[in-house]
Amino acid sequence: MSVETQDYINGMRQGPLTREIPECMRNKYTVVQAIIDVIMFVIVGIGYVIKATYQSIVGKHKKDLKGAVAVVTGGGGGLGSLISLRLARLGCTVVLWDINKQGLEDTVKLVKGIGGKCYGYVVDLASREDIYRVAKKVEDEVGRVNLLINNAGVVSGNYLLDTPDHLIQRTFDVNILAHFWTVKAFLPSMIEHNDGHIVTIASMAGHVGVSKLVDYCSSKAAACGFDEALRLELECQGINGVRTSLICPYFIRSTGMFEEVNSRFVPQLNSNDVADRVILAIRTDEPFALIPGYFRILLPFKWLVPWPCISDLIRGLVPDAVPVPTGPRAAPTPAPAPAAPAPAKRGAGAMSLLPPARHDRHV
């Protein structure tokens, strides 16, 4: 595409027909052109809707993942380990990243136990330098990565004014900033080969606010924006072989993060069901998946009804996201927060085969 054509598309240069139209007629021509653009958008949009409806009825084609090299962050347990097992069964070479060394070793054994090929790397996802270092090591030792699953996440679970600054920083380092560094590490190779898939495990908390999860909701909302903007950026550059998928599940059981959430009407999700849904989204190149699916119908009402309705609904649906006993919140950890970095780093993985001790989520 020539520079002149690109400038015309971006509205920076007049088209050849516009230059031939008298000055007094150009405003009318612009109006006609805008009407034509709207009509074309409606026609194309209807085509997309028909195609999506057809695919939802007959099903989408599932791509073959055999031979792919997949990096799964937070792969030392929980949802990350379940996704890894499914990828291994599909023939992927699985590369696990986690801060929890024991969890990594356990998951690597599980994957190898079903005949899969798996590598584990201890990575501090709150450290940009560590991410870049291990990413280079993976490409040298395992090969080109063409499937990246940003799954790791942490939660502090306090009211904002009760949350120490270093926990807020850790939440954003792991839940969103790590996505920037992993994508910047692996995306250039994906673009070069026009082949790749980036999966962002976000949350329904990225679409609605929840009390005691101010830092968590903010980081997940950023993850949702990150995926959408990245997808558009790739499309604008004409990169069609690199896909992205955004996964937004409700609270999940057995991940060590929301075991005690007080949820009404909507039950907590089974982690195996969520893992299956993630794999389906990957194999069908699904842009985004809300879990459970009926939230896709309910979510638009957030912008259509008055705020008091939304507030009452959210508070009724999730009376308490992190119900902890009142009393000495820091009793399990007698040392002051700054003096206990080890548990905090273990929590950075947020995924272990066994649910972490309660205080691991708060230091």
What is the helix/strand order? HHHEHEHEHEHEHEHEHHH
Count of distinct structural domains = 2
State the low-pLDDT regions, or none: 325-363
| Distance N to C terminus | 54 Å
> What percentage of amino acids are in beta strands?
5-15%
The largest β sheet comes out as: 7 strands, parallel
Whole-angstrom Rg? 23 Å
Structural class of the secondary structure composition? alpha/beta
CATH architectural name of the largest domain: 3-Layer(aba) Sandwich
Number of helices: 12
Count of individual beta strands: 7
CATH T-level topology of the largest domain: Rossmann fold
The CATH superfamily of the largest domain is known as NAD(P)-binding Rossmann-like Domain
Q: How would you state the average pLDDT, rounded?
A: 83
Rough outline: globular
CATH class of the largest domain: Alpha Beta
Descriptive account of the structure:
The model is unreliable at 325-363 (pLDDT under 50). Helices cover 48% and strands 11% of the residues. It is globular. Strand 6 (242-249), helix 9 (271-283) and strand 7 form a beta-alpha-beta unit. The chain has 2 domains: 3-58; 70-361, NAD(P)-binding Rossmann-like Domain (Rossmann fold), CATH 3.40.50.720. 37% of the residues are buried. It is an alpha/beta fold and 363 residues long. Strands 3-2-1-4-5-6-7 form a 7-stranded parallel beta sheet, with helices on both faces.
